[in-house]
Amino acid sequence: MHTEDLVEIRIHGRGGQGAVFAATLAAEIAFRMGYYPQAFPFFGAERRGAPVAAFLRYSRSFLMPRCRIYEPFCVVVFDAALPKDAVVDGLKKEGVLLINASEDLLASWPKIAGRRKLYIIDATHIAAEYGLLSSGMPLVSSIMLGALVNILQLSPLQTLEETLKGRIPKFERENLEGARRGYKEVKEVVVDANSR
Amino acid sequence: MGRKLMNGNQAAALAVKYSRVQVVCAYPITPQTSLVENIAQMWAGGEFPGEYVSVESEYSALSYLIGASYSGARTFTATSCQGLAYMHELLHWAAGARLPIVLVNVNRALGAPWSLEPDQLDSLSQRDTGWIQFYCADVQEIMDTLIFSFRLVEQTRIPCMVVYDGFVLSHTYEVVEPPLQEQVDHFLLSPPSRAAFHTDKPQTIQAVTDSRYLSRVLQERHLSMLKIPGIVKELDHKFQEIFARSYPLAEGTNLETADTVIVAAGSLAQTVKSFLNTVEDRKEKLGLLRLRLFRPLPKDEIASLLSGDNIKKIVVIDRNVSAGVGGIFAQELRALLQGIPYRGKIFEFNLAGGIDLTPAMMEKVLQAISEDPGSEGKIIWGVDLQ
Hints:
The complex is a heterodimer of chains A (about 200) and B (about 375). Chain A has a single domain, classed as Pyruvate-ferredoxin Oxidoreductase, domain 3 (3-Layer(aba) Sandwich), CATH 3.40.920.10. Chain A is built from seven helices and nine strands. Chain A is globular and about 40 Å long. The longest helix of chain A has 14 residues. With about 200 residues, chain A is of the alpha/beta class. The relative contact order of chain A is 0.18. Chain B has two domains: about 240 residues, 3-Layer(aba) Sandwich (Rossmann fold), CATH 3.40.50; about 140 residues, Rossmann fold (3-Layer(aba) Sandwich), CATH 3.40.50.920. Chain B is built from 15 helices and 15 strands. Chain B has a seven-stranded mixed beta sheet, sandwiched between helices. The longest helix of chain B has 18 residues. Chain B is globular and about 70 Å long. Chain B starts with a strand and ends with a helix. The model of chain B has no long low-confidence stretch (mean pLDDT about 95). The interface between A and B is medium-sized, with 22 and 31 residues.
């Protein structure tokens, strides 16, 4: 999935969606798989609904840069309506893009992805099925986390489940089920070369 | 206890708990907030047996600790930027009164304008208050340096400021090995029993003095401060025996072979170190000097680290600027190098305002100094290289 020793991921979402939480749990999973992780939020005050970013890097070596991530291998988008150019900024040519979207609502994402791999998961729909909502906003973080862990081949499903257990005070069963669905249902969008 | 994932503020809160601090008094301020929230939460849940006192300002927080420390308690506070500046007068008082207080400052740019960026001027502008200052490079080091500091202050009666970058360390989760309570108990002294103050025995302290007496007090403080590097080294041996981890006064990497040495403090040093490890086939041979103990500056240690004839260029990275002068670390290094026969050049690379140091920017600054010899004596600004 990735050739370099250092893997860098940037997660884009809206304040309240759990982007930072997902980055932290992904770091925990990377740690359980024997990596040294770093997970950190965008530097700033968070507001509900405002665009936010979270960062994750992991490597077999503790020695990693301590800057923000400008050229990620992977970009994760919690809300497909976020400004597309901003979220894919710097995404590596051989990188991957994971979007919370359904196939019929992909809009221009395949074009934006270009030759990079594009993965989708309809996390908003799954969240609604399990009643994962907060003030009307779908809580997609565990579903997106499940999908991310799968496309990075970061860990088996069991490690993801073990990491989530006890970490979610409310709706644990729903979040666990959501993470499983994300892990299992994420799929690559195969785009006709002519339409790129 | 096994290794765990935690961020800098959580690690600091745990260190305070393990160190059996008796009085914590603080006022929340981003990016320090989650540190004091963690302590308050442990206190509310009965896990932290000390006192946790909320006050209406940083000025009151340090005032409260001065009182608590006079009465013999082990004390801790934490702050950042404007909050540290607001404590300024009392920082002098605590040091003058030789009170063993430990303080965390999470680096954040001072306003105006408002910012959350990790500029270092908040703590560096307190360098003359008489406090010991350590700059930490990772989350484990934050936890270890804090535990270490409680022993250091109680042994020397000089207060200590443990400094780390806002967000870059305060909010970054990484792998940490927490200590065992027995290890910390073994390393620390018994809680201080020497109370200068008691309501049963009223007395006047710090009364008005003449210059002759005051000058002796200041002289003694200076001489005590000069002994700190030696004491830190000694205590580090003890720390290593117990915790199997060791921290230098200043850390050198590749200094025996380098022709170009980057000087940096805090988490910036780790970005430089990883850059050193990943770049190959350069015409320069690169080395790193990480500043860790900044007050007092361990002059002999740094001079000996930079004494090799192989070193031709030194590039000092400052994420702060003393307006009209330049980066503070660069000024300190220049003054220190006056005392040794270093004949190379010193370059200033400035990231004031919290400019993020990336490997790409490292490339650019190295290119700038190799292409333009005239860049010595001028400040190379990171913001111009972005």
